[in-house]
Amino acid sequence: MSDATAGNLSQAAAEARRDDAAQTGPMLAADGRPLKQSLNRALRAQKLRALALIAPLLIFLLVTFVAPILDMLFRSVENQIVSETLPRTVIALEDWDAEDLPSEDIYAALAYDLHAAVERRIHTRLGSRLNYEETGLSSIFRRSGRGIDDVGEGYADQFIDLDPAWEEPATWIGLMADPDWIAEQAAWAATETEAREPVFQLAPGIADLLPETADAYRSFALALQAEARNPDSPTTEEPWNTVFLALYRDLSAGAEVGAVEGPEFARAEVVRLQEAAAAVASFTPVDLRATFADIDEGWAEMPIWTTIQTFSDPYTAGYFLAAVDLQLTPSGIEVVEENQRIYMLLFQRTMVLSLTIMGLCVILGYPIAYLLSNLPLRTSNMLLILVLLPFWTSLLVRTSAWKVLLQQEGVINDLLVWIGLVADDARLAMINNQVGTVVAMTHILLPFMILPLYSVMKTIPPSYMRAAKSLGATNWTAFRRVYFPQSVPGIGAGCILVFILSIGYYITPEIVGGRTGIFISNRIAFHISDSLNWGLAAALGSILLALVLVLYWLYDRIVGIDNVKLG
Amino acid sequence: MQDAFVSFDRVQKSYDGETLVVKDLNLAIGKGEFLTMLGPSGSGKTTCLMMLAGFETATHGEITLGGNPINNIPPHKRGIGMVFQNYALFPHMTVAENLAFPLEVRKIGKSDREAKVMRALDMVQMGDFGGRRPAQLSGGQQQRIALARALVFEPELVLMDEPLGALDKQLRETMQFEITNLAHRLGITVVYVTHDQTEALTMSDRVAVFDDGRIQQLDAPDVLYEQPQNSFVAQFIGENNTLEGTVAEMHEDMCVVRLDDGELIDALPVNVSEVGQRTKVSIRPERVEMNKDRLAPDAHTLKAEVVEFIYMGDIYRTRLRVAGHEDFVVKTRNAPDQRRLKPGERIEIGWLPQDCRALDA
Ligand SMILES: Nc1ncnc2c1ncn2[C@@H]1O[C@H](COP(=O)(O)OP(=O)(O)OP(=O)(O)O)[C@@H](O)[C@H]1O
Ligand SMILES: [Mg+2]
Questions:
Q1: Which of A236-250, B180-194, B214-228, B283-297 has the lowest mean pLDDT?
Q2: How many CA atoms lie within 13 A of A76 on its CB side?
Q3: What does the alpha-carbon distance between residue A479 and residue B332 come to, in Å, rounded to a whole number?
Q4: Chain B residue with Cα closest to A480
Q5: Which pLDDT tens digit goes with each residue over B10-23?
Q6: A338 lies in a domain?
Q7: ipTM surpassing 0.90
Q8: Which of A29, A303, A388, A535 could pair with A38 in a Cys bridge, judged by C-beta atoms 3.0 to 4.6 Å apart?
C-alpha cells in the first residue's frame, strides 16, 4: 500500500469517526484527534517548559545538595580500603577460625599485600582506618612500612648464593615478562620519548606454573611503573625480597618446573629455575611469623588479625555502630566501654539543649512578635530592623561578645558581684558550659522564631479579638481561645526552624560550650577535620539527618504540616 | 429623650489629638429601636460604634447604656452583641463552636448551651451547618452566622457595622429583610451602620445622617427623604436637583427665589429667613411637573430644553438644561398619557412650592 492511499484511508476513517462520534465514542478536538490526546499534547509542552524553567536550579541542587548527601550516606557504610589494600590477606583470612594466630600462608599473603601497599604508601591510611576500631594498629602499620624489606630477605640471600644471576633484573624479566612486552619495552627504551613505559605484562603460562611468584612479581613491576614522580622499570631493578619469598614458596610447594618446554621460556632461565627447585629443599626456612613479630610484636598477637578479618567486608555497619557507642567485635555487637561512650550522650544533649533553646525562643519571641504585629506599621518596621540587627553582625563576633559578657570576670558577673547578689569568690560559671551554649544560641536563633511568628500574627485581624471581647470574653480568654490558636502555625514554623538550625549548630557551641556544652555537630566537625574519620562523621551526620526526618514526621502526625505558615 | 436606652451626650473623639473625628455627638436611642447611622466614608460612624462597644474611649462626653454611664466598663462586660464588617467568625472553630463561644464564657451549662445554639442556628435557617468551618460557608451564610452569634447570648443591644457590604444585591435585600424581621421579633435595639442609603431607608425606624463628625439630621426615613433639613442631607439621600440663587421674596409659608440667571421660582423656606440670603433649592426629580394644568395659575415656571431621554421601563428619566445647568433630572411614571420627549424639544416645568425646599447655601 502506498503512503498516499494510506493517508487517504486514515483520513476517511477519521471522518467516519468524527461522524459517529457525534452520537457516541470519544470526544474529538476540532482537528479530529481524540480530545484526550490533544489535551495531553498541549499539557506536555507546558510540562516541558516548566521543566526547562527549573532545570538550572534542579541541576544546581543535585550537584551541591543531593550528591553530597548521597556521598555522605555512602561513606557512612563504605569500607573498601581494607579489601583494596590487603586483597590477598582478606581472601586468605576468610577461612581463618580466629582462635589461633594465622598460618604461614596468611602471613605470606600479608607480606605481598603489605609490600605493595608500602611501595604505594597507602599502608598508613589503612593503619589509621583500622585504628578507629582498635587503637594501636596505626603504629603497627607505620612500623611495618619500615620493616617490610626484612620479609623474605633470608630467601633472597640464599637464592643469590645459589646463583648470583638471581640478583640480575634481566633474569627475572626473562622468566616473568611476556616476550611481546619485552619487545615493546625495548622499542620504547630505544626512543627518547616522554611517554611512559608500556604496562608490564606477565608471560603466558607463568601464573599457572609459579602462581605466587607471578602475582608478587607483577605487583612489584606495576608498583615500580606506577611511581608518580620518577617511574622505574622492572628491567633495571632487583625484585623485592617478598618476590623471592614467593619463589621459594612456589618451588617448595612443588611447582613442576621440570616439565617446562617450548619457546615461551628462554633455555637459560628454565635451567636456572630447575636448579633452584632442586636446591630449595636444602634452604634454611625462615619463620614468617617471627619475621613479622620482629618488625612489630603486634603481628604475633590476635587483635590486629581479628580486626582485619572483622572489617574485611567492603561495606560495614561499623561506623553506625560506633556512632551509637556500639562496636563490632569478632564475637558480635557489643557496647563500648563506659569511659568511651560519648555519642549517645552527645545526641541526647543536642536534643535536650535544642528543645530548651526552642522553648526559650518561643517564650521570649512570642510577646515581641505580638507587640510588633499590633503596632502601627512604621513603628513595627523600625523595631523589626532591631530584631534583624544581629544578622548584620558576624556570628563569630556575636558569640565572642557573649564570651566577654558571661565569663567569670565578665560584665554580668561583675555586675552581680557589685550589686551583691553573688559573692566575689563564688562567681557564676556561665560560659564554657551548657548555660553558655543555651544563652548564646537562644540569642542567635531568636530572629528565626520572631519572623515567622510576626508574619503569621500580622495576618490575624484585630477584629477577632474585638469580636471575642464583645461576645463577653475577658482579655485573657480572648487571647487563649481566639488569638493563640490562630498563631499556632507561626509557632510551629518558628519551632521547626529554630530546632533544626540548632541541632546542626556548630560554631557557637564550639566557642562558648566548653566541654559540657558541645553538640554532636562539634564531634562531626572534629572527625571531618581532625581525626579524619570521615566514615564516622558521615554515620553521625546520617543519624542526625534521620533524627530530623523522624521529628518532622512526628510533627506532621501531631500538629500537621499544613499547620505551618511562614506568613 | 428621657427614657433613652442608649445615649450619647456631647461626645467627642480624636485619635491623634489634633483633629476631632466625632464632634459634639448627641444621640438618644429608644429601647427596641432600629437606628441606622448613614454617612459618607470617614464620617465617624465606625468610631461611634466602637466607642459604644468599648473598643475606643470617648475623648470627651458621656455615653450611657440603660441609664448607666459605660465609659469605664470594659467591653466584655457591656453585653453588647456586635456584627463586624468582615464577620470576624473564628476560623479555627466550627460554626457551632463559634456560637457556643459567648455562652461558654458566660459559664452556661452544656445542655442549655447546645439548645441555645440550635435555636439561634434555626433562627437564621442555618440549622444544618453547625459542623462546618466558616471558610466552608458562602458570604451570605457567614453573615447569617455572624448575626446568630451576636444574638445567641440574648443581648439587648446589637451593633452592626456594614454587615451587608460584601454581599450581592439580591442577597443583600433578602438579608435586610431578615435582619429587620428578627430585630423586631426579638425586640432588640439595633444600631446599624451603612453607607448605602437605600438600606438605611428601608430598614430603619430612624436614620442618623453623619457628615464631618456630626449628625446632620436624625429622623424617620420618610421625613428624611421628603423634608431634608439641609443641602447635605438633600444631596446625600436619594436623587436631587439643586439650583442656586438668592431669596427675592419672603411670604408666610413660601418664598420666591431668584436664580443666578434671573429667573424666579417658588420654594418652601427651610433654612432661609430673610430677603437677600443665598440659598440652594432642592427639588426631587419625581416632583417636577411638566403639565402646566396641574400647577397653580400664578405659579412660576422655568423654560427647559430636553438634553436626553432615557426609557427605564417603569419610569422615564429625562435630563434637561435648566437655568444654564445640564444636570436637571425629571422622572415620570410610564403612563398612557405621558408623552416621550425628544432631545432638543423645549418645554416648561414647574412644581408645587412645598416640594421645592430652599436650604442653606
Ligand atoms: N485607629 C485610628 N487611628 C487614627 N485615625 C482613625 C482611626 N480609625 C479611624 N480613624 C479616622 O477617623 C475618621 C473616621 O473613621 P471611621 O472609621 O469612623 O469612618 P466610617 O464612617 O466608619 O467610614 P467608612 O464608611 O469608610 O467605614 C477617619 O478620618 C479615619 O481616618
Ligand atoms: Mg466604618
A1: B283-297
A2: 20
A3: 58
A4: B105
A5: 999 999 888 999 99
A6: no
A7: no
A8: A29
The reported pLDDT for the residue numbered A9 is 47
Task: Measure A463 CA to nearest chain B CA, in Å.
Answer: 6
Domains annotated for chain B, with CATH where assigned, are 6-231 (3.40.50.300), 240-359 (2.40.50.140)
Closest CA to A536 of A127, A65, A132, A130: A132
User: What is the distance in angstroms between the Cα of B262 and the nearest Cα belonging to chain A?
Assistant: 56
Consecutive H or E run containing B18:
none
Average pLDDT, whole number, for chain B?
89
Average confidence (pLDDT) over B91-119: 93
Counting the structural domains of chain A, the total is 4
CB contact under 8 A, B81 and A486: no
Q: Within a 10 A sphere around the Cβ of B168, how many other Cβ atoms?
A: 10
Asked whether the beta carbons of B343 and B306 are under 8 A apart, the reply is yes
Residues A386, A492 within the same domain? yes
CA A157, CA A494: separation in Å to the nearest integer? 76
Write down the number of H helices and E strands in chain B.
8, 19
Give the 3-state secondary structure of A392-407: HCCHHHHHHHHHHHHC
Specify whether the CB–CB gap between B189 and B158 falls below 8 A. yes
A201's grid cell: 605484562
Positions in chain A short of pLDDT 50: 1-9, 12-14, 16-17, 19-22
Position A259 scores a pLDDT of: 62
Residues of chain B in contact with residue A467, where contact means CB-CB under 8 angstroms, are 82, 84, 88, 90
Q: What percent of chain B has pLDDT over 70?
A: 99
For residue A541, give the C-alpha cell.
551526620
pLDDT of residue A261: 57
How would residue B219 be classed by pLDDT, with cut points 50, 70 and 90? very high
A260 and A302 belong to one structural domain? no
CB of A556 closer than 8 Å to CB of A441: no
Distance, CA of A413 to CA of A429 (rounded, Å): 9
Residue-number span of the structural domain to which A440 is assigned: 343-563
Q: Which three cell numbers stand for residue A250?
A: 612456589
